[in-house]
User: Fold these one by one.
Assistant:
Number 1:
Amino acid sequence: MLQKNVSVLFCRSIRRFASSLSNIYANRTHTCGELRSSHIGVKVSLSGWLEFRRMDKFLVLRDAYGQVQAYIPENQPELREMMKELTYESVLRLDGIVRSRGKNVNTKMPTGEVEIEVNSINLINEAPKALPLRPGGDASEETRLKFRYLDLRTPQMQETLRLRSRLVHDMRRFLVEKRDFVDVETPILFRRTPGGAAEFQVPAPKPNRGRCYSLPQSPQQFKQLLMVGGLDRYFQIARCFRDEGSKIDRQPEFTQVDLELSFTNQEGVIKLLEDLIVESWPQPLESFRPNAPFRRISYNDAMKLYGTDKPDLRIPWKIQDASELFPHLLTASSSSTAACVVCADAAASVTNKIKQEWKRLIEMNSRSAKFAIFDGSKEKWFKEGHNVEEIKRKLNVGSNDLCVISWGNEENVLYTLGQMRNHVAEGCGLRKKQQMEFLWVVDFPLFVEEEGRLVSAHHPFTAPVAEDFALLRDQERRKSIRGQHYDLVLNGVELGGGSIRIHNGQVQEYVLNEILQEDHTELSHLIEALKHGAPPHGGFAIGLDRYVALLVGKGDTSVSVRETIAFPKSHTGRDVMSDAPAIPTQKQLDKYGFAFVVKDEKTTENDS
Amino acid sequence: MLQKNVSVLFCRSIRRFASSLSNIYANRTHTCGELRSSHIGVKVSLSGWLEFRRMDKFLVLRDAYGQVQAYIPENQPELREMMKELTYESVLRLDGIVRSRGKNVNTKMPTGEVEIEVNSINLINEAPKALPLRPGGDASEETRLKFRYLDLRTPQMQETLRLRSRLVHDMRRFLVEKRDFVDVETPILFRRTPGGAAEFQVPAPKPNRGRCYSLPQSPQQFKQLLMVGGLDRYFQIARCFRDEGSKIDRQPEFTQVDLELSFTNQEGVIKLLEDLIVESWPQPLESFRPNAPFRRISYNDAMKLYGTDKPDLRIPWKIQDASELFPHLLTASSSSTAACVVCADAAASVTNKIKQEWKRLIEMNSRSAKFAIFDGSKEKWFKEGHNVEEIKRKLNVGSNDLCVISWGNEENVLYTLGQMRNHVAEGCGLRKKQQMEFLWVVDFPLFVEEEGRLVSAHHPFTAPVAEDFALLRDQERRKSIRGQHYDLVLNGVELGGGSIRIHNGQVQEYVLNEILQEDHTELSHLIEALKHGAPPHGGFAIGLDRYVALLVGKGDTSVSVRETIAFPKSHTGRDVMSDAPAIPTQKQLDKYGFAFVVKDEKTTENDS
């Protein structure tokens, strides 16, 4: 019989005859997803959500583990009658017996061989008739975020969060059990760091009013301090915070797999990361498992061949010098060049409209050079009377290919071709290709010039490569110093980066003081620490959200990190569901002794 | 030969013949702690800190894994001479051969059977002659916190952090591998919650200036929303934040083992917690491993027998009624009572000075009642001529015992005896006793009266026990409703708490609106969620820092949580090492559009 039961009353006995791990401590005998023909004849109690109903006698019940069909027999007219009232997404408990579906096996459902012959339905919690979204149905991203608790019921979200949980668990097992790493939690309420423009501020309470904690962008200082503290091998799945405003697909809080070890070197850290990734590779993605060692390229070669320090190796095309073929594009300047990238089989995918859009995107950036796109099937390229056939032969351009030529200052040309290489690949669908191409980029410059002064290419704690160490004191040649920094790139996305750190306090002080001319008093505790017996050390951090997004996309770079986070923020940094951030009460403001000087108008959310 | 090498240069080859997991990726053949007589004759490279030196020929090298003695042979006069310069805590690399110590075995050292005959010393990083503290040496807590990177090198801190890491790992293994739980990260930047007086505020950037994120005191809302989202079994080692000012041994950020599951009940959650604790029990504490099921007591019985809802069962004494024995202490009031607690073998530990101190402590609290302390050896107790011998016989008071008698209002009497029971036990050293007594406290009241109105005893999401559900609508009897809340107490410390939640949106709305009369608009998203098909669910949270403190103290409740955290805050909420919180820059204030109205004078730190 159908029992309406919307009270907190709930059956009190825990069944101990659980058939799988998920049923221990639970008021059910089985999950919806686990029933097979081997269960035929078994009495079951299931709890879950009403996914679907048909002809007032069939229904599909769904829980976290799958779906199963249930059937109300003819001798239960009362149940059949009352089933009409049941709303989708209501929580039900069904009791019944597992029967064979006979000839009506549904091969698309894992439980499709069986159905439940129901003898009791218990309505545990009723959902409204009109739902803002049905799990798995179409809905705008704003609706999905506002009703995240419904969106989380979709199989895709369930699978993603479970894959993430399992991945992190397997990383931990590798690090703790196979490599002796120690999981250490570091503070989230910390102090401002130099240049920490992107740090959230937390006004401190009495007796520290007028001061702020900062939320750390990474546990960088702490992990180095742990090395000084002799912890030797540290890791943490660390929450980090970065206030970058409304950047596409960036979250104000994100997670990194953070690790550091002592008495190691660049080869050691690179090997560790390769082992970590291969050993924790998700079982459902077995066919994509990478082989170690991963490919490796120097920063300079990456720029020359791909026009970027994070090349997507799913794209086979490389940049080629074309100065000799197009002498009319060169000027007298020593940095003047012409180069091209031949995009095989790309011609058919590219319309003039797309070309115009690329032109617009490239020209928006001050680093761009002039460029032109030619179709391999066309007989004329530039207005000038080149021997196009010979050029095509020399560059190996087929009639289905596109050739992008850029000319001007070398740096700009490489930048432009790097961008165009990605754009054309995107147009051809190559960026959605399900393939995983890991790549190490090494030998980055330690410093880069910005507005006439040197700044750290990554951060001021990176050590120079041994051969370049002496150049630190050579003001003229500092720009050519290579850092012991390494980036891990997957399909053109920077998955993470790391470095061997400066472990000598005097050297660190010199870099901060003399080379970077930063106020190092803010880092005096770290410099002091390095002076008190710091071991040589280095580490790495993987952007976990991005990594999971690439995994669930099987390499497709268009999956948003928001799909990998249970409760993400919108583009404007809001939690659309709870309407965070909220206006603080006067009591709260008084407690922390601050007031707002500027208040933004509340804008409407537009996240779709 | 001794090589001074304070550059970033460091040997580049990673030795692959590592003898233990800790040596993979590391520039060493062995750790200092692993060498045994089986290694005699082996050529080793070790890296670590100079712990000790003697007679310019012996030194002790320490790393994260232990210590080993090294010996500079006579044929290395240059090394012997230069060893004099080496400062303690400098980082060294030693190369040499493992030799037997022969008759000079040091049985106190795990590596005491061997020593290294050194043929090369490489000074990797020099420490200063004058150290603010030596790892393991005496130092004030302020010094230990300021130079935490030195303090972390002490074996005690190393062991604690490793025990914590392993404990958490084993909890994860149990939850993920044996119980199918999913590790889900929930946001740290969230919205204000009703009554969230203790929440830190984070001013939001553009376009949300004028609004604040709040740092959550627990993931309570998120874990319930995950249940609504069908996640079924969630856990997280969650960072939580609570601004409680300068309370002794409280940290503004702390960690809890947070979990929630659907389709369960109180028995299910209690069994889960028992299994979790027993299965993840640290191997080094094997002799303390508890047996499940743990003891259980109702809130009312706990108050009656122990005068507290978190009794320390290491203390064998119980409160007894004594109204009949001391009729002269009673008044006409119906709540008037007299009761006592007999503290066996406590008489010798208690001086008059201690008694005065207890009196002062008890009287500070408005909940206290009058009390008197009598010595079992004394012949006279009260001035009135009682038959003391008979009373002692009836109460079973021996001559080495103390008897604490309290009288007045029953609630105050129980409170006073509960406090005195702990005080006397503390005086006898019972609170430092190495023993682990777990206890469940159940059947708490759902609401308590505060200033004439009902408030939630724990939080407004707790469901009433089924039998009391109907009383929600009975205004007169609401105070007698029991909640499905359960606390886990270890040695008188509340280790954690949990409850079965209200899963019905209408009931939740009624409790917030009608009973608690709270502004429930702040929780409208949660109420909405419950109305969209929430399953029955419940959960728990363990205070991890406190649990680890009790574990490393083997039950001793006097170990501070600061001993379990790598970088704790001081009593005043400061990071003494980095001097956080810091004064924000004007640029930071401008970015978030706020200004300080109140600024505290910088007080000096006093943490010892």
Number 2:
Amino acid sequence: MKLSFQKNDLLSTLQVVGKAVASKTTLSIMECILVDATEGQIRLTGNKNDFGIESICPGDILEPGKIALEARLFQEIIKRLPQTEGKNILLSTEENGNCTIQCEKSVFKIMGRNPDEFTSLPSVEKQEIVEISQLSLRNMINQTIFSTASGENNKKMTGEYFEIIDNQFSITALDGHRIAIRKTELSESYDNCSAIVPKEVLSELSKIISGGLEDKVEICFSKQYLQFSFEDTIVVTQLVEGEYFHVRQMLSSDYETKIRLNRKQFLENIDRARILARDNDKQPLILKIEDQSLSLKIVSDIGRMDAEMPVQQEGKDLLIGFNPTYLMDALQNIEEEEVDLYFTISRSPVFIRDQEESYNYMILPVNFNAEAVG
Amino acid sequence: MKLSFQKNDLLSTLQVVGKAVASKTTLSIMECILVDATEGQIRLTGNKNDFGIESICPGDILEPGKIALEARLFQEIIKRLPQTEGKNILLSTEENGNCTIQCEKSVFKIMGRNPDEFTSLPSVEKQEIVEISQLSLRNMINQTIFSTASGENNKKMTGEYFEIIDNQFSITALDGHRIAIRKTELSESYDNCSAIVPKEVLSELSKIISGGLEDKVEICFSKQYLQFSFEDTIVVTQLVEGEYFHVRQMLSSDYETKIRLNRKQFLENIDRARILARDNDKQPLILKIEDQSLSLKIVSDIGRMDAEMPVQQEGKDLLIGFNPTYLMDALQNIEEEEVDLYFTISRSPVFIRDQEESYNYMILPVNFNAEAVG
């Protein structure tokens, strides 16, 4: 095999497919990137346990062939080669797997791996293909993913729930203490479909779909896999098995108290309070809503903080406690200057949502001893 | 005690004295900052095992007094208070050590520590006071400190050697494999004096002397301590005991081979070579000087790299091996576009130095098996 590349083309393709390369495994072929130039295009593939990325790299095929190369080493070499304009990076392999990477007067010789050991991506049987803007998908993932669980206790909580109903696309994440939902309207209607997508894949995906509102991603739903296609790249992931939680039953639009407040000011007050909860994440932040005003209070072994800010209050007064970090996570992922919070009683969750429910963040309250915090 | 501050004044003073606060100790008073407003000024002090920093903070003394406050907590609170223009931060303490920090509608109550437990800085008996620009001192420290040793095997190697001879000020660091020396001319002459300064202190000091060429530091030499004074701040450090190495005997200005080369190009080639030495820092980079050209070669379990670059050669051809990281460290701390390297034989060190010896970096070579690397 003999290929020539321009440095930046090869480097950016490696950075994309490198997201699906295992970093420490016992199966060392999973630490490799497959370079396949047998079918008229130079196709690079990374394939981890549960997801894989394939991307076409611009370049010239001087002699077809394929090889698997250790991803980290391959990337480091390309990154450090001289920055030149032309297709000056020459990658060539011999029968025995010896691989030479040359650029101007720098020559690397490393050992390649047998490309036949490499597991190729599953071919996805296409059921429904949905088109969405890269910007929307990226934002929706980033604005919900913090609400997934990390442990292995409940596998379904470690994924995000993708759901299409007509022309509505929503992403839901929950971890047992909170729910995050983002919804958007698609430009056309589709058959209803859904999938639980592992969060790890989405976290990597959100880094490589860097396009804007006009750039599209195709999401292809199938029984066992989800496939994302955009530009010269496809990402294929296994799905989390099982039926997702019945989230709609946990939501409610009734409320007894509604406050509208300045999001940034609220965030700054919560951030202050968190200083005193640093050694104990369970220390509740207590909110007191009364007379168009919100008081915040936290009491811990370290000390005590009191703060106060004006709000537009509708309905009853209320005293309620929350994990301050959960409040921050939700508020940091909203862009609006003013937000609405909906409460019922002190044992019921708060909902932070807009009119159209393009976002809806639910957070369960925390019990506290009202006497002790004076 | 009752004091009022402007947020930025207090925050920047805390960041300075905070450099001399222990982060995890059994003596928890060493994790504190002393606030002393008993003598007409607000003096903040941090004092670690072997060095301390004291700085005057602008502010109003409404009621004199002193208190010790946990440094990290104190900093975090001030950092997160509202950003206001006036002296709106109010710090007040009660007899029992209760401390209130208030800014607008945010109020923190934390426990202070007994200020009498706090060890004050030693008073330094002034022998010789040397004045140098903040910029020069900062650069000289940063450009040599990488050559100090980290272990406890040889305490003297963990410090930097400060030496004044007439109007010459030099800083020397060595770790058994290499020596780094930076020298500068002072604006006047002083009595000869010297000290071995712990590198940890210098590393923190270089972060807080942020001034330019016109801003001065006074270095006060005494038997047991060194004191740096600048603006409203003093830094006092214990010295490393003992006599420093006789470095002058290790230097030599004779050479058999001299090459002048482009520093950046050399650095890029070394950086490339280091990819293949990543699992084994001892893997030598082999330099071959011949016919006005420098070949670089490295061979490891991972693979092999060859590169070549033009040099201006004077004297004999040479084949010699080095730890690539040591070469990089020295070259990265030189600003000149072109540098001169002086060699004698393959078992003798290289010297990278300029004409005036404002810098002189010595690196010992590494043995290698010339056969094996073909």
